[in-house]
Design brief:
Elements: H1 5-8, E1 27-28, E2 34-38, E3 46-50, E4 53-58, H2 61-80
Antiparallel strand pairs: 1-2, 2-3, 3-4
Length: about 80
């Protein structure tokens, strides 16, 4: 066995790995009520869907997730009252 394990265990599909970590292609909440999916033809924009209906277009993953979490928090307070 070689002394450098990185040369022994190579990744055969390293070309398909995401080069920008932390920027996934979409987002879905655990309950499935909210989703952010990529817009066809755009590399960064995501459309936000709530309960099957189009709601908003976000510039990137971070703003889409922030919008979803803000709306969940805002709507959650209303439903408890």
């Amino acid at each position: 066995m070689p002394s450098d394990y990185r040369k022994f265990y190579t990744c055969p599909n390293k070309g398909i790995l995401d080069t920008v970590p932390g920027s996934p292609e979409g987002y879905v909440t655990k309950d499935g009520m909210w989703a952010a999916v990529p817009i066809l033809g755009s590399k960064t924009k995501l459309q936000i869907i709530n309960n099957g209906e189009f709601v908003h277009v976000a510039r990137n993953y971070d703003s889409a997730k922030a919008y979803i979490l803000r709306e969940i928090k805002k709507n959650g307070k209303r439903s408890r009252s």
